[in-house]
Amino acid sequence: MATHARAIEAEPTHEGGWPRDVTRDVAYLRTAIVNVVFFGAERARDWVLIDAGIPGSAWTILSAADRRYGPGARPSAIILTHGHFDHVGALHTLATRWDVPVYAHPLELAYLTGRSPYPPPDPSVGGGLMAAVSWAYPRGPIDLSGRVRPLPEDGLVPGMPGWRWVATPGHTPGHVSLFRDGDRTLIAGDAFVTVKQESALAVMSQAPEIHGPPAYYTQDWPAARHSVRVLDGLAPERAVTGHGVPLGGRQLREGLHALAEHFDELAIPPRGRYVGSPARADARGTVSVPPDPTSPWPRVIGGFAIGAVVGTILSSPRLRSRG
Q1: What pLDDT was estimated at residue 126?
Q2: What distances in angstroms separate CA 166 from CA 148, 174, 229, one per listed residue?
Q3: Per the CB 3.0–4.6 Å rule, which of 50, 100, 132, 136 could disulfide with 37?
Q4: Dihedral sign, CA of 122, 126, 127, 129?
Q5: Which residues of the chain have a pLDDT value below 50?
Q6: What is the pLDDT of residue 196?
Q7: What pLDDT score was predicted for residue 296?
Q8: What's the distance, Cα to Cα, between the start and end of the chain in Å?
Q9: Domain Metallo-beta-lactamase: where (predicted)?
Q10: What is the pTM of this model?
Q11: Other CB atoms closer than 10 Å to residue 204's CB: what's the count?
Q12: What pLDDT score does 205 carry?
């Protein structure tokens, strides 16, 4: 089940169509299957990048930044909602090229400084091809030692006045969302998403629907439920999520509220590796992982489909940014 909502009619910021404005100073760029967010109005001197796309997307992000802010523009910081591979794929290249600090929640730092991989994905949940092949997705860690820093304890977001970070664990231990009280704009990462990310067909069509976090990579379902309820309590006016199109207005609020109220039925799989037995983590990274109850055959079969799925998705004109 899913809760349907109306997509924000995001305006193309440039002739090429990307990045697209959500508000005057918030724009998003789709890098194949995942969004990155730019905070800062066009031609602003001070701007921030939120998340860093899939592997291989550095040039797309750099080109979009040049179009929006001017040739050679660089942000004051990069903020991470979390450290999964599709949100940090271009991070090392971007952080090095721009020579800027990277900020993440303290409980994400182990995955960003080479100390711990994330728990294995669960390809048995979600019911789609993107989920079935998730066992092959990189788990990290990456190593940005010396460049990555913890987000401030006071909840402020470096380089983003008027915004605060909100702890929204569950999908990962240190997942955060960003919220601006002034106009109730939410950057939700993968705390919830607006496309059925487990399904390759849904990812290609980008039909807007409110869903829980991508199931195959969510390691603590009770925490994920609580996080969605926290975000519902903020009553956002508009939301940009890590996957799918931005949503806004009454449809967003009602859809998010329905997800919060009926999270167990709408989001939590009936069974799965982390259903009832979350992975455990602390500042050291992953501490314990429940045993894998699934047969290896889905992985073997899924292996033959990986090349076709990834190739189809990455080549889809609906998903390619024009950068």
Answers
A1: 84
A2: 19, 10, 12
A3: 50
A4: negative
A5: 1, 15-16, 297-304, 307-323
A6: 74
A7: 53
A8: 34
A9: 33-243
A10: 0.88
A11: 16
A12: 67
In Å, how far are 84, 130, 131 from 137, measured between CA atoms?
A: 9, 10, 10
**Residue that has been written with the tokens 């979009």 in this structure:** 64
**Helix, strand or coil, per DSSP, at residue 148:** strand
Amino acid occupying residue 63? S
Looking at residue 312, what is its pLDDT? 45
CA 238 to each of CA 27, 32, 183, 275, 295: distance values in angstroms, whole numbers, following the listed order: 12, 22, 9, 30, 41
Find all residues with CB under 8 Å of 137, minimum gap 6, and list them: 85, 86, 121, 217
- Please tell me the distance from the alpha carbon of residue 272 to that of residue 121, in angstroms, as a whole number: 10
104: helix, strand or coil: strand
Whole-angstrom Cα distance, residue 51 to residue 78? 7
Domains of the chain by start residue, with CATH: 11-114+123-273+292-315 (3.60.15.10)
What are 275-296's pLDDT values in tens digits?
999 999 999 999 999 999 875 5
Query: What is d(CA 48, CA 200) in angstroms, rounded to the nearest whole number?
Result: 30
Considering only CA atoms, give the Rg of the chain.
Answer: 18
- Size (the chain), residues: 323
Tokens 């045993």 correspond to 291
Q: Answer left, alpha or beta for residue 144, where phi above 0 means left and psi between -120 and 50 means alpha.
A: alpha
